[in-house]
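Training component of the fellowship. As part of building independent skills, the fellow (R.M.) carried out the full modelling exercise for a liganded target. The chosen ligand was alpha-D-ribofuranose. The inputs are recorded below so that the supervisory panel can assess the work.
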Amino acid sequence: MTRTALIIDCDPGVDDAIALFLAFASPDDLELIAITTVAGNVGAPLTARNARIIRQIAGREDVPVYVGAQVPLVRAPIIASHFHGDSGLGDLAVFAPVAPDAAGHAVTAIIKAVMTRPPGAVSIAVTGPMTNLALALRLEPAIAHRLGTVVVMGGARTEGGNITASAEYNIYADPHAAQVVFASGCKVVTLGLDATHQVRATPKRVAAVRAIDTPAARATYDLLKFSEGVQRRFAGALAPPMHDPCTIAWLLAPDLFTTRPVDLRVEVAADLTMGHTAVEFRLADPAAASVHWVTQVNAGAVFDLMLERLAR
Ligand code: RIB
Ligand code: CA
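Fellow's submitted model of the complex:
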């Protein structure tokens, strides 16, 4: 597999953190150009600090962390600390990371990376609200057709919403940004709740993580135990879904996922259904679609991949 030059735009966030561990442990597959952070699960200062904490635990201070948008494009910030804890990293022991964030804004870093490398060379995984990518597309529209693949965790079709009855959090938090990204012409692979709810950290899988004695696996175990508790409180006994790690797993092993071309529109006006993703499978010209929707995931193989990387 050729190495993918990748930017990860995230709002750590418990599952963002596990996605970062997976990416940091895959240097032969992923050339991590930058981590960019955004306001989301918790406020922007915390998501930036949390990305640096995870980077330090993984020993990957070679990867710069750029701080991005402090608020969504239009809406007021909506945090999800009930899912991620006040720190954003569950009850993981947080600390002041040694290595600072990089100079310059995340949006500038995204544009520079894409415009200075060959067309199609840079891909981006977006695991939080899409504010940074939307701003980059507005500042430099040329990146829409110069980016490689944009892999996003967001949206819902058959699963319904997880923050409201009809909306998934990442889209709900900044629906205007999502609308910009999906309408931009970027090649987008979309992992909605329909996909990520198939990949759950069952007790057996959590026990397998516990058996791995590496800093990333120990931190991941703590994060998963926190998420188990949240899941019990909010959704009964169901095992926590591995939302954001699916974006990195898709980049590492796309054959574990089934996708289909779609027309994806975002509700940005109606209060009741704000952030809803209308995912249309009936297309006049499927080959012309720039957006693809993940319908099936080989969850066992995805988790095996996660375990193998956490053990590195
Ligand atoms: O709906 C799940 C998404 O919202 C994940 O990215 C999680 O981290 C939160 O940001
Ligand atoms: Ca996230």
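The panel noted the following from the submitted structure. Residues 10-11, 13, 15-16, 40-41, 127-128, 244 surround calcium ion (ligand 2) (CB under 6 Å). The CA atoms of residues 188 and 291 lie 5 Å apart.
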